[in-house]
């Protein structure tokens, strides 16, 4: 099973990818997490990645594929946050001999995106995301933090980048006949049940 989750920032792609990972034993490939990990490393590649992320800009394809290529080959996976533009989608198609089984677009309006990101807190240890006011993680008790790229100016920039570069992927995958839509203004569990129903209808899983 090879899935791609599309949607604007804070659509819940990461949450749903984790649920799919546990349900079907998939590898969860989250480009955001991979890039943040790279940005923390004190080397030239990490510094380049960090500079782009702090500005809310897309990391150039050569850097991104350097980090991703070995994680994609010969695996069942769910891609979260990738591809982000048409060039990446076309390169991904060339890289994957068996192609992608299904692309799921999680639809969320812009106002909801801004509200979700503005109040998002993250556990640095287990990665759990919280959208209510909390001090510590319910799972491991670690103090929560707000990501540097979750400030208002960068949020607006990320939405603009999504509209310009990522939104055209919807048309790209529709033409291939593998795109399906899911409404994202629901609870995470309701969204997951919708995805499971969709996979069943498509004969996947």
Report on this structure.
By secondary structure, the chain is of the alpha/beta class. It is built from nine helices and seven strands; from the N terminus they run βαβαααβαβαββααβα. The strands form two sheets. Strands 2-3-1-4-7 form a five-stranded parallel beta sheet, with helices on both faces. It has a two-stranded antiparallel ribbon with strand order 5-6. α2 crosses α3. 28% of the residues are buried.
Quick recap of the structure?
This protein is of the alpha/beta class.
Features:
alpha/beta, Rossmann fold, 5-stranded parallel sheet, two-stranded antiparallel sheet, 7 strands
SSE order and pairing:
Blueprint: E1 2-6, H1 13-24, E2 27-30, H2 31-40, H3 44-54, H4 61-72, E3 77-80, H5 86-95, E4 102-107, H6 110-118, E5 121-122, E6 129-130, H7 152-166, H8 168-176, E7 179-183, H9 188-202
Parallel strand pairs: 1-3, 1-4, 2-3, 4-7
Antiparallel strand pairs: 5-6
Helix pairs in contact: 2-3, 6-7
């Amino acid at each position: 099973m090879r899935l791609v989750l599309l949607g604007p920032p804070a659509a819940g792609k990461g949450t749903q990818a984790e649920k799919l990972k546990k349900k079907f034993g998939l590898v969860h490939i989250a480009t955001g997490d991979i890039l943040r990990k790279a940005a923390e490393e004190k080397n030239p590649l990490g510094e380049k990645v960090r500079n782009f992320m702090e500005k809310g800009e897309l990391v150039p394809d050569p850097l991104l594929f350097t980090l991703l290529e070995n994680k994609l080959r010969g695996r069942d996976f769910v891609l979260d946050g990738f591809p982000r533009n048409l060039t990446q989608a076309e390169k991904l198609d060339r890289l994957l001999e068996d192609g992608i089984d299904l692309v799921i677009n999680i639809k969320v309006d812009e106002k909801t995106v801004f509200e979700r990101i503005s109040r998002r807190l993250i556990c640095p240890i287990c990665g759990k995301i919280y959208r209510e006011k909390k001090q510590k993680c319910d799972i491991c008790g670690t103090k929560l933090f707000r990501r540097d790229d979750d400030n208002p100016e960068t949020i607006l920039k990320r939405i603009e980048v999504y509209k310009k570069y990522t939104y055209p992927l919807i048309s790209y995958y529709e033409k291939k006949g593998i795109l399906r839509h899911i409404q994202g203004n629901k609870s995470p569990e309701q969204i997951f049940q919708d995805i499971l129903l969709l996979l069943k209808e498509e004969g996947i899983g």
